[in-house]
Amino acid sequence: MPTEQSRSGNSRGRTTVLRWVAVLLALALIVVGSLALAGRLMGVGSARHDNQSSSANGRKTASHSPPGYSPEQTAVHPPLISPVDYNHDGVDDYTAMVRGAHQEARIHPRYDSGYYQGGYPPDDRGACTDEIWRAFRQAGYDLKAMVDADIASSPGAYVGVISRPDPNIDFRRTNVLGVFLSRHAQRLTNDTAATDQWQQGDIVIFDTSWHIGIASDKRDSQGIPLLLHNMGQRARENDYLGSPGHRPITGHFRFDASKIQPAVLRPWRG
Predict the structure, then answer these.
(1) What is the rounded distance in angstroms from the CA atom of residue 74 to the CA atom of residue 81?
(2) Positive/negative CA dihedral, 176, 83, 94, 115
(3) What's the pTM?
(4) What are phi and psi of 163, to 5 degrees?
């Protein structure tokens, strides 16, 4: 027959088990919540947040609804048209850059920030900075040549970001691009609430050297442009700019060639 002492011990044991169960459930909820937030920010959540879908033959096709996309806000914010068509193909610079970034999103290169002799990684590889020079290429600019020439002509401007010039990698460094754009592009507000100051083709730098991307022609429900960028995430166009967890914006630039000295510009020659 159980004693009072044994009944008390059993009661304490059940209480301890229940407490551990409660702790484990709380931890599980925290993990699930964190994963849901990460999925929203990075576009790696449920299938509806993927910017690619499988067709019947197994090939991937681009989705028309990137994470965070609002057709209503996109419609009331017409895209800014550049006064320049640098490569004379009938498409203005800003539109061309965004088309180039969209093409990158469709190609979906594997994330690779490695060092390559000659500078350029293979077409199916790249980092966030490769999105930028490839977008510039679509508009007819050779960003690598422009950066290399600017470093050669004004090395003092780059002392804080490189110890010595290296054409194989300099144009693929976010902080180097930050210096180049600060010197030659139009600098704009970092406040995303000023939605009219954010336009397609704008270049955005996060945390000085951490990340870089291009503002899309599509907008989210707040009227903030989606971001075309590569940090290895599944959806290469998403509402990172409008997400509360994004890293600090330290640079917002617009490359208006009509306001840049012609000597700075270099055409893409393939």
Answers:
(1) 15
(2) negative
(3) 0.78
(4) -85, -35
How far CA 164 is from CA of 212, 250, 260, in Å, comes to 22, 24, 26
Instruction: Quote the DSSP letter at residue 226.
Output: E
- Give me the DSSP letters along 37-88: HHHHHHT-SSGGG-SEEE-TTS-EEE-S--TT--HHHHHHSPPPPPS--TT-
Low-confidence ranges of the chain (pLDDT < 50): 1-8, 31-63
CA Rg, the chain, in Å?
24
> Token pair of 219, please?
């907008």
Structure tokens at 31: 């993990």
**Cα dist. 101→19, 126, 127, 158, 201 in Å?**
52, 12, 13, 27, 9
Residue with tokens 């590569």: 230
Which residue matches tokens 């804080």?
160
Task: Name the amino acid, one letter, at 228.
Answer: L
Per-residue model confidence (pLDDT) at position 139: 98
- Tokens 């050779």 belong to 142
Task: Report how far residue 58's alpha carbon sits from residue 66's, in angstroms, rounded to the nearest whole number.
Answer: 20
Cβ atoms of 100 and 139 closer than 8 Å? yes
Phi/psi zone of residue 255: left (φ > 0), alpha (ψ -120 to 50 degrees), beta?
A: beta
Instruction: Work out the number of other CB atoms within 10 angstroms of the CB of residue 110.
Output: 12
